[in-house]
Amino acid sequence: MNTDSLSVLWRLPGESQSHEASVEMISDQEWEVSIPATLGDTRIEYQIIASMGEFSNQMPWLSIGTSDPYFDGTSLGAKLQSFSIIMIIFGFMLSLQTWFSPRGVSNLVDNTNEVEETISQQNNDYWSRLIKSDENPGWLWDPVEKEWVADPDLSRGEQ
Length: 159
What we know:
The protein is of the alpha+beta class. The protein contains two helices and ten strands. The longest helix has 26 residues, at 75-100. The relative contact order is 0.08. The mean pLDDT is 84.
């Protein structure tokens, strides 16, 4: 109040040289001062000099600053939170699976008998093509694969 000019000096703590800040009168008895922003845990000291005609008032050095944001978290807490989110997603997907699964409708076809018949037929075809040999007792000749096969009627193909 009651000031025609205003000047602001600023400096970092421990500096002896001060810098002049940009000061602008935005309306009657209202001033805007631009001081550099601080990053991290830093302080800036500033001094205001107000003048009215020949009279000048120099205020003491004041300081302003910022500090790092407070965070009270641990890595264990972050891991537990991640695990709980994974479990929520897993539970959601499991509930979707039960929601969209067919209910009470038995569209399943049991082909067990057909598969067993096919395997039995293949086994009968295989064993029927084997030829016994008097020269090699305990062994059967497979003309398709052209190899000797142990006779299952004798133990380990020996007599």
